[in-house]
Amino acid sequence: MTTGALPRRGLSAYAILRPARGRLLVAVLAGAGAAGCAVALAAVSAWLISRAALHPPILHLMVAIVAVRACGLGRGVLRYLERLIGHDAAFRVLAGVRVTLYRRLEVLAPAGLADFRRADLAQRLASDVDAVLDLVTRVLLPYAVAALVGLASVLMVGALVPVAGLTLAAALLATGVAVPLLQRAAVRRADARLAPLRAELATGVVDLVHGMPDLVAYAAADGHRDHLARIDARLTAAARRSAAAAGLGAAVTALCTGVSVLAGLLAGAAAVRAGSLHGELLALVVLTPLAVFEIAGPLPAAAQRYATARASLRRLAEIWTAPDPLTGGSRAGASVPRPRPAGAPGAHPAAAPVPELRLAGVTAGWTAGRTAVAGFDLTLPPGSRVALVGPSGSGKSTVAALLVRFLDPRAGRVTLDGTDLCDIPADRVREIVGYLPEDAYLFDTTIGANLRIARPEASDAELLDALAAARLRDWVRTLPDGLETLVGEHGMALSGGQRRRLALARILLTGARVLILDEPGEHLDDATAGALVADLLAAAGDRTVLLITHRTADLEGWRVVRMAVPAR
């Protein structure tokens, strides 16, 4: 399933199931065949036992005996096919939705995700996406199979005893339609709140785990735990109401089953006495509803899962329909030089020329109604060293996001050698302009694997050259495992300076001709931060460097551009 399979306006149940409709149709037919075999097995067995009690010639029973064997074998084979094909279709749909959403996140990140919390996004991409699997295997297939087999059973029983057939039809409609509607009216709010409450609880737990040192230091841990306990109590209450509705549905289903059997017995007995029904067919009329309700019984629970799945789909649709942070043509084909990474991370004599970047009268913001940068001008000549200085909230990181095209300006222009960045694909911009954010992420893997994110084909020698430019090679050579040393979660096995230098080595491995370094000395002492900035200057070679910082020390030789907090 491709991303084009889903409409841009959102994620609907029909839209996500449409690419697998062929497999789903086969699965429905196989499921209906298996359920039909189960009903036929009960009906034919009932007739066979009743007929055999009259001691007819054995040849009169041969067709029924063969039918019982065929139904028994067919039920198992068709059930296997239904599960195999149905789950194959479900997992294909699931994979398609995940890939589509990941690609959508790639487009949105980071500016388009400003209104989403990380733990909530993880919950949406895990539990909420898994609800799609329930939509196929526990909602669509049970309802489609029950509808087909229920209709055939009503027609069969109705042809023998019309009253029993009408009663069976009414009971099936009550189980499959009336009970779910009543459940929905009773617990609509509870089912709709399950997914958001789970997300809120997951977000709170992540905050508790990551913020535990600060919470303990400020004696706020108990208050945070109490808040989580209140969320958990609301989630438990919603789940309890949902479970109560499911129990009520099961009770009504059992009642409908009993009514159908009793109606079949009374109406069938009357028909036998009137001579309109053969006596051996009475068992068929009485026992068929039992087999049918084995299939229709899960429908109330399926309807309840559908309500939960719809709430999850709405949460996924919020990601899919989030406004694009890029307003220009992200797939335009503007002609710009393609950088070629050289073997050494310093000067790049074989790489493309260093371009000029310019911001002219730029106004931009991360969220609607809030301006982070207003009417800002900046020019980065080839090979220049520019320091962007200003207090927090002045828009320094927003300027970096504009230059790497994480978002587009609301007004003004950002140009690369005179070409508007809105006319250059975002991925091409990031091949030319490299960005080292303040919170550069280190993966829980080895030093070498973290570096090869920038250049997967890089040799060990090239990695060591990049580490040398970042003043880490000698340290890495002292490690027993060298480049295979694990850095720990978020790089916690390294010091703050080592984490920043490793992230710097990674960006030096790219072919980027412009480097944007956001607060490289953050969380470091003055001496370490000054040494790191000096190393940056030496390692950049002939490339343009934009240094974003709030520190004014150690900027000798840099052109300093000061920013102020814009008026809100």
TrEMBL record:
In what way does this protein cross or attach to the membrane?
Multi-pass membrane protein
Bias (Low complexity) occurs at 332-350
InterPro entries documented for this protein: AAA+_ATPase, ABC1_TM_dom, ABC1_TM_sf, ABC_CydC/D, ABC_transporter-like_ATP-bd, ABC_transporter-like_CS, P-loop_NTPase, Type_1_exporter
Q: Where is the ABC transmembrane type-1 domain?
A: 25-308
Give the UniProt subcellular location, in the record's own words: Cell membrane
| GO terms for cellular component | plasma membrane
What PROSITE patterns does the record point to?
ABC_TM1F (PS50929), ABC_TRANSPORTER_1 (PS00211), ABC_TRANSPORTER_2 (PS50893)
Under the heading SMART domains, the entry gives: AAA
Superkingdom of origin: Bacteria
Entry keyword set: ATP-binding, Membrane, Nucleotide-binding, Transmembrane, Transmembrane helix
Q: Where is this region: Disordered?
A: 328-350
* One GO molecular-function entry: ABC-type transporter activity
Annotated GO biological processes are: cell redox homeostasis; glutathione transmembrane transport
Q: What is its main location?
A: membrane
- Membrane-spanning intervals of the chain: 24-46, 58-78, 140-157, 163-182, 243-269, 281-303
Q: Where is the ABC transporter domain?
A: 357-563
Pfam families the UniProt entry points to: ABC_tran
Record-linked PANTHER family: ATP-BINDING CASSETTE SUB-FAMILY B (PTHR24221), ATP-BINDING CASSETTE SUB-FAMILY B MEMBER 6 (PTHR24221:SF654)
Question: Mind telling me what this protein is named?
Answer: ATP-binding cassette subfamily C protein CydC
